[in-house]
Protein: YegS/Rv2252/BmrU family lipid kinase
Amino acid sequence: MNKKVAFIINPISGAKDKAKLPDIINSTAIEKNVQVDIFHTARPNHASELVRELVANSYSRIVAVGGDGTINEIARELVGKDVELAIIPQGSGNGLARHLGIPLAVQKAVNVALCNSSELIDTATINNVPFFCTAGVGFDALIGNRFAESGSRGFSTYATIATKEFLNYKSKEYSITIDGIVYNRSAFLITIANASQYGNNAYIAPQADLQDGILDVVIVAKPPLIFGPLFAARMFLKKIETSQYVEVLKGKSIKIKRNEEDYVHFDGEPGKMGKELKLSILPSSLRVVF
Ligand SMILES: Nc1ncnc2c1ncn2[C@@H]1O[C@H](COP(=O)(O)OP(=O)(O)OP(=O)(O)O)[C@@H](O)[C@H]1O
Structure:
């Protein structure tokens, strides 16, 4: 393959040891006769800086080695460009990679990253911040932020925070405008999905398609605590739309008004934004190898 390929490894993503990755990448590259260079991120947003330099230096394929946060930092620099994104899933959730069917096994994923061709997928923005999988407001945005503030990682911390916050959390009022039609809803959370899942095969929008030019808007009412496990089971079985607590709408241009500045999440990254959120889709705007 006559391409200049760069791998960007996020050393802190996920839980797997990444010490052997450079050897696997280099030996596969020799076998496939591809020129590769490997970089490591040293801090948040470093991946974006690296990508800007790599694009300026004529790399034609950039491989994100990490999770959805790493992909976000890399892909945001590639939207609208001819440079391809490939993925070695090494995150905690790997939502985009799982949606695309990219193998979780390292050697297989490296083969795909070096040998497969790319297709165009849709990307999206929330108040001009790019996202590729999901973005949203409400309970999951609160938990994501609390989890980040806690400074510790791991599922047990996450579950403890989620259970404690669930008991106190009150649904909030939102005015949602989708392609000009207004929906007023009291919601536990609202997820805007480009891809179908949060990660770990938790399908919040099972029908979401990365190549349909449409965003899925999933509005969830607060289920009683006792329904929590059933709700989770429906997510993993791709049946969330059958829940009485879920409403799914679709559109290209979405505005969400809420009563105050509050938390958001995009691709699992926590953040805070104002009362008014504008979400847009950019159809066929990113070349992804899968
Ligand atoms: N050297 C570094 N030190 C600390 N943070 C880093 C470093 N390099 C990258 N990061 C940050 O690590 C964060 C987490 O990465 P990422 O989202 O890929 O992993 P994850 O959260 O385990 O996976 P997923 O998003 O799939 O659940 C990113 O937000 C990125 O900014």
